[in-house]
C-alpha cells in the first residue's frame, strides 16, 4: 500500500504511519537498516488505436515534436527497459489499443496491432470501449486467437491471439454475472507481488453500438476497483495498480508531465478508490498528464503511441507496500532506429493490403481538420471536416430517401485530411467505423430536442449545409431526463434549406446507425420513425470526395450565437 503524501518521498515510515498502518519499521534509520526495496518499472501507454505507422498531422505531434509509429515505439520501450533493470520492468496499457484504427490494422480486424504490441513486450492491458466495437465474441477471439469467423485469416497465416493478457474487471456477462475476462493479474518481481486490475469506463454502452455490448453490463469503476483490491489483499498483494480506460483533462497551460486544473471523471473515480490502490494508469480522453490525486499517482500517455509513461515504484520487500511512486511521460520520438521486426510486420501487411490503400479518391485544396471551433469558451462548435462529412451523408441520401438534413457525431471523425490528393486509406482513417447511414423521420419539435441534447451530452452534432440555427449562451440547459426543457437553441432560429422549421412538420434526416440507436447520449434520435438503412458512411464519404474534387474546407457558419445574430 502506497501511503498518501509519500509520492517521491524518501523511503521510510514515520511513527504516525506505523500507528496507522502497522508497518514494521519505527524510524527512518530502522527502515534504512532493513532489506533494500525492490525497484519496479512500469511502462504504460493507452489509446493506441492501431496506429502502426507514424500518425500524420496534429495526431503525429506532441510537445512540439513529431512522435509515434510502432517501429519507434518498440525501440523506445526496449531502451527504457535497458535503462531500468529489465527483469523488473512490466509493460501495461489502459485500453483502446484497437478500434477506430487506420486501414492497415482495421482491414485485418486489428490483428496486426495485437501482433505488434505483443512483439513489443506488452504484458497487461485493460479493455477500452473500442475493444467492444465488434462485440464480446470478437474480443475473446482477439485475446485467444483463431481466424475471423467471416473473413478467415485474411493475411494467409494463422492468428495466434494476444501475447499479453487483457483484463476486464467491470464488464460482466449479464446472463451469469461473471466477468467477461480475467479481472486482475498478479505479477511477481523479486519476490514481491504487484496486482493489476483492468477495466473500462462504466458508460461504455452509451458510446459503443448496442451490438457491440449485447449481453454485457458494466459496473461502477471505483466500486469495482475497491472490490478487487480487497480480493488482492487477501491474496497477499499490497502493491496495486489500476489500468482504467477513463480519464480527465488538465488546463491547456499544462505540459505532458503536469496536472494543471485537472477535471473529468478520473478525479471523482480516484477520490473514491480505496487507499490500498497506489497507481492509476488511465486513458480514454487522449490527454497527457502526470498527477497526484488523493495520494495516488495518476497518469495518461495521450494517444496513438506518441508517449510512454515511465513509472518508478519502490516496494518494501517485507510488507509488499509501495513506498514511493513517480512517473515521467516520455515522447516517442522518431530519431531512434526503427525496430526491424516491426518494420517487417508492417511491410507484410501492406503487401497483402495491395493497391487498395493507395487508390486516389479525391483531392483537397487545403488541409481540412477535425478541430472544433470554440463556442462559449470551449471546443464545442463546428468542425470543417465534420461539416464536410455531414454534407457527404446528405448527398448520399437526398435523392434515395429524400433527406433534407444530416448530422455527424464528433467522435466518428478520427483524423485530419492533408492538402492535396486523398487516398482511400486516408479517407478510411477519417471514418473507420463502417457505420451504416440511417434516414428517419423527425418532427420539428424532435429536432429542437436533439439540438438541445447537445448541451446535456457536451457533444456537438456537425450539421449539413442545409441546416442553420442560433445558440443563446444565456439559455438554460436541459437535463438527462428531459433534454427538451433546454432553451439554448433560440426558438424560431432553426432552418432547413433556408426555411424556418415548423415544430409540427416532419423532416427526413440522415445520421449514422450509432446515433440512430441513441449513441453518445442522443436518446432523442431513438424517437425517429420510418427508418431506412443505407450505405456505409465511408462509401458515402469517398463518393462525395470523388464527385466534388477539388474539395475545400466548408465555412463554419451553420451554428451561430446570439452575439452574431441579435434577437429580433
- What's the shape? globular
The radius of gyration is 25 Å
Helix content: 10-25%
- The helix tally amounts to 15
Total DSSP E strands: 27
What do you see in this structure?
There is one protein chain. The protein has 568 residues and is an alpha/beta fold. The chain is 24% helix and 24% strand. The chain contains 15 helices and 27 strands. The strands form seven sheets. It has a six-stranded mixed sheet with strand order 6-5-4-1-15-16, covered by helices on one side. Strands 8-9-11-12-14-13 form a six-stranded mixed sheet, covered by helices on one side. A hairpin with a 6-residue loop joins strand 15 (307-315) and strand 16 (322-331). It is globular. The chain starts with 14 loop residues before the first helix and ends in a 7-residue tail after the last strand.
Please describe the structure with a list of short key phrases separated by commas or semicolons.
disordered N terminus, 568 residues, 6-stranded mixed β-sheet, single chain, 24% strand, alpha/beta, 15 helices
Question: What's the short story on this structure?
Answer:
Helix content is 24%, strand content 24%. The chain has 568 residues and is α/β, with parallel strands linked by helices.
Amino acid at each position: 500500500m502506497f501511503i498518501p503524501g509519500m509520492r517521491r518521498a524518501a523511503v521510510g515510515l514515520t511513527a504516525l504511519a506505523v500507528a496507522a498502518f502497522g508497518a514494521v519499521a519505527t524510524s527512518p534509520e530502522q527502515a534504512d537498516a532493513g532489506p533494500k526495496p525492490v525497484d519496479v518499472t512500469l511502462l504504460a501507454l493507452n489509446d493506441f488505436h492501431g496506429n502502426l505507422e507514424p500518425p500524420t498531422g496534429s495526431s503525429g505531434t506532441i510537445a512540439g515534436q513529431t512522435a509515434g509509429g510502432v517501429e519507434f515505439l518498440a525501440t523506445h520501450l526496449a531502451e527504457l527497459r535497458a535503462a531500468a533493470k529489465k527483469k523488473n520492468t512490466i509493460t501495461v496499457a489502459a485500453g483502446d489499443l484497437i478500434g477506430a484504427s487506420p486501414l492497415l490494422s482495421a482491414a485485418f480486424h486489428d490483428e496486426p496491432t495485437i501482433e505488434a504490441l505483443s512483439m513489443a513486450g506488452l504484458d497487461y492491458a485493460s479493455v477500452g470501449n473500442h475493444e467492444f466495437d465488434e462485440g464480446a465474441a470478437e474480443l475473446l477471439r482477439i485475446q485467444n486467437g483463431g481466424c475471423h469467423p467471416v473473413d478467415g485469416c485474411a493475411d494467409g497465416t494463422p492468428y495466434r491471439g494476444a501475447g499479453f493478457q487483457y483484463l476486464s474487471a467491470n464488464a460482466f456477462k449479464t446472463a451469469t454475472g461473471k466477468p467477461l475476462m480475467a479481472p486482475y493479474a498478479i505479477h511477481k518481481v523479486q519476490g514481491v507481488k504487484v496486482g493489476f486490475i483492468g477495466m473500462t469506463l462504466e458508460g461504455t454502452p452509451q458510446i459503443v453500438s448496442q451490438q457491440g455490448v449485447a449481453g454485457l453490463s458494466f459496473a461502477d469503476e471505483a466500486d469495482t476497483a475497491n472490490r478487487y483490491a480487497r480480493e488482492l489483499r487477501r491474496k497477499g498483494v499490497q502493491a496495486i495498480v489500476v489500468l482504467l480506460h477513463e480519464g480527465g483533462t488538465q488546463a491547456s497551460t499544462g505540459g505532458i508531465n503536469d496536472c494543471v486544473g485537472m477535471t473529468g471523471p478520473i478525479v471523482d473515480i480516484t477520490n473514491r478508490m480505496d487507499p490500498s490502490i497506489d497507481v492509476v494508469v488511465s486513458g480514454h480522453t487522449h490527454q497527457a498528464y502526470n498527477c497526484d490525486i488523493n495520494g495516488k499517482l495518476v497518469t495518461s500517455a495521450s494517444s496513438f503511441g506518441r508517449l510512454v509513461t515511465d513509472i518508478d515504484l519502490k516496494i518494501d520487500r517485507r510488507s509488499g507496500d509501495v513506498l514511493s511512486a513517480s512517473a515521467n511521460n516520455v515522447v516517442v520520438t522518431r530519431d531512434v532506429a526503427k525496430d526491424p521486426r516491426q518494420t517487417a510486420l508492417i511491410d507484410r501487411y501492406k503487401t497483402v493490403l495491395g493497391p487498395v490503400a493507395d487508390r486516389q479518391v479525391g483531392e483537397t485544396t487545403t488541409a481540412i481538420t477535425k478541430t472544433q471551433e470554440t463556442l462559449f469558451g470551449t471546443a464545442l462548435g463546428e468542425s470543417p471536416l465534420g461539416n464536410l462529412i455531414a454534407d457527404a451523408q446528405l448527398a448520399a441520401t437526398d435523392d434515395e430517401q429524400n433527406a433534407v438534413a444530416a448530422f455527424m457525431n464528433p467522435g466518428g471523425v478520427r483524423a485530419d485530411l492533408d492538402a492535396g490528393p486523398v487516398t482511400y486509406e486516408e479517407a478510411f482513417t477519417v471514418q473507420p467505423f463502417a457505420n451504416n447511414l440511417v434516414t428517419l423521420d423527425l418532427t420539428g419539435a424532435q429536432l429542437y430536442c436533439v439540438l438541445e441534447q447537445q448541451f446535456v451530452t457536451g457533444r456537438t452534432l456537425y450539421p449539413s449545409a442545409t441546416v442553420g440555427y442560433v445558440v443563446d449562451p444565456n439559455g438554460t440547459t436541459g437535463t438527462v431526463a428531459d433534454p427538451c426543457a433546454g432553451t439554448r437553441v433560440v426558438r424560431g432560429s432553426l432552418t432547413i434549406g433556408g426555411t424556418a422549421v415548423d415544430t409540427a412538420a416532419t423532416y427526413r434526416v440522415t445520421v449514422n446507425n450509432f446515433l440512430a440507436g441513441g449513441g453518445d447520449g442522443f436518446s432523442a434520435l431513438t424517437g425517429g420513425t420510418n427508418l431506412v438503412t443505407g450505405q456505409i458512411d465511408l462509401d458515402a464519404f469517398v463518393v462525395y470526395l470523388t464527385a466534388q474534387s477539388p474539395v475545400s474546407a466548408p465555412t463554419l457558419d451553420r451554428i451561430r450565437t446570439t452575439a452574431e445574430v441579435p434577437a429580433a
